[in-house]
């Protein structure tokens, strides 16, 4: 009987990757599978969020008799739970937690990875049914194994990432992750309850026709950014356009679209957020890693995102990220300013 080997599940893919590296311990594969499990559980709740909200408003108790939790707190608990009870993660940092957590048990203290994540980015979009996502970033700890992790294990430059990825809860639910060997996308197949390889070896097109920015802040942006945006608005067929502006206010969705189709996403400095809005460690770094492995570029307007050495867990950064050719055109405007 022929076994269908055409479509690999996430588990099969990570095991195949591990087999390609005889010295691999399997810890990273286990960690990615743990994150996939958390994503499946979050997906169930996200898909019925509207219903739960209505029931939750009625009396704070949902149909299962559970206390209605905020969905992003729920998502945080799911990701933290699978990593804490797994065998591959020594500690975590999360958008939902003030400080990092060292799991500090004998198994976890001997794990070689730490993970940072935004458990449910864009959760403000849930009540209007806009796609949202989970973002994660994996590093090898820098302190010796056998002891609890410390802050320096988390404050590493993004270039040290071992893996990074996201889950987008959209028209379908997809998990996309990158290692230095490539970027691969897996679509959740409800018929078997598994993420199945649907987008092997994702490459970000060198040029695209989509620019993503919040036009509501236009007059707060520095002049080179304004100048570049106006160039985008004036592109013609002859100059690589015409461009279209797409911005749905959910980073995972905007960046997933631009990764697949080509495009540029910008979150520049504004008056009330002079250092940018997006978080370096668990929003900018993971996407910068993914986009660079896929052939794109990511900077804060001055330096490569992955080269920034963080000083705080929740520090913010400006972000310009996307297709290599579009980023280089933007950089030609920014360099004039810097010059
Ligand atoms: P603004 C969502 O709140 C988020 O963190 C990202 O997902 C999104 O790209 C950005 O903020 C949108 O911010 O200020 O344009 O609404």
Your description of this structure?
Residues 54-66 have low confidence and may be disordered. The longest helix is centred in the first third of the chain and has 21 residues, at 27-47. The protein is globular. The chain has 339 residues and is of the alpha+beta class. It has 9 helices and 15 strands. The strands form 3 sheets. Strands 2-1-3-4-5-6-7-8 form an 8-stranded mixed sheet, with helices on both faces. Strands 10-9-11-15-13 form a 5-stranded mixed sheet, with helices on both faces. A two-stranded antiparallel ribbon has the order 12-14. Residues 121-122, 124, 214, 249-251, 254, 277 line the site of 6-O-phosphono-alpha-D-fructofuranose.
Brief summary of the model shown:
The chain contains nine helices and 15 strands.
Observed structural traits:
Fructose-1,6-Bisphosphatase, Chain A, domain 1, 339 residues, alpha+beta, D-Maltodextrin-Binding Protein, domain 2, binds 6-O-phosphono-alpha-D-fructofuranose, single chain, globular, eight-stranded mixed beta sheet, 2 domains, five-stranded mixed beta sheet
């Amino acid at each position: 009987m022929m076994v269908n080997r055409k479509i690999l599940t996430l588990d099969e893919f990570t095991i195949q990757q591990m087999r390609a590296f005889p010295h691999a311990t399997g810890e990273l594969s286990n960690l990615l599978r743990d994150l996939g499990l958390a994503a499946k559980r979050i997906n169930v709740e996200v898909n019925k969020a509207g219903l739960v909200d209505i029931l939750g408003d009625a009396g704070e108790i949902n149909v299962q008799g559970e206390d209605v939790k905020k969905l992003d707190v729920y998502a945080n608990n799911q990701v933290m739970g699978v990593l804490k009870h797994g065998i591959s993660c020594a500690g975590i940092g999360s958008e939902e937690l003030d400080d990092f957590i060292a799991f500090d048990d004998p198994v976890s203290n001997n794990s070689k990875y730490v993970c940072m994540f935004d458990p449910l980015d864009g959760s403000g979009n849930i009540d209007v049914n806009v796609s949202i996502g989970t973002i994660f970033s994996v590093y090898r700890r820098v302190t010796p194994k056998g002891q609890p992790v410390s802050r320096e294990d988390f404050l590493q430059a993004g270039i040290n990432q071992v893996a990074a990825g996201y889950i987008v809860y959209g028209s379908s639910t997809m998990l996309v992750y990158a290692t230095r060997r490539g970027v691969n996308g897996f679509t959740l197949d409800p018929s078997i309850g598994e993420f199945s390889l649907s987008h092997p070896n994702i490459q970000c097109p060198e040029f695209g026709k989509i620019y993503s920015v919040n036009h509501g802040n236009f007059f707060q942006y520095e002049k080179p950014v304004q100048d570049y945006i106006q160039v985008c608005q004036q592109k013609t067929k002859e100059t690589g356009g015409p461009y279209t502006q797409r911005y749905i206010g959910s980073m995972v969705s905007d960046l997933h679209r631009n990764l697949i189709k080509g495009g540029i996403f910008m979150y520049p400095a504004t008056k009330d957020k002079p250092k940018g809005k997006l978080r370096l460690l668990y929003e900018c770094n993971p996407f910068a890693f993914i986009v660079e492995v896929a052939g794109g570029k990511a900077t804060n307007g001055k330096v490569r995102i992955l080269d920034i050495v963080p000083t705080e867990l929740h520090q913010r950064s400006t972000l310009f990220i996307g297709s290599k050719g579009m980023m280089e055109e933007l950089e030609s405007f920014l360099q004039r300013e810097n010059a």
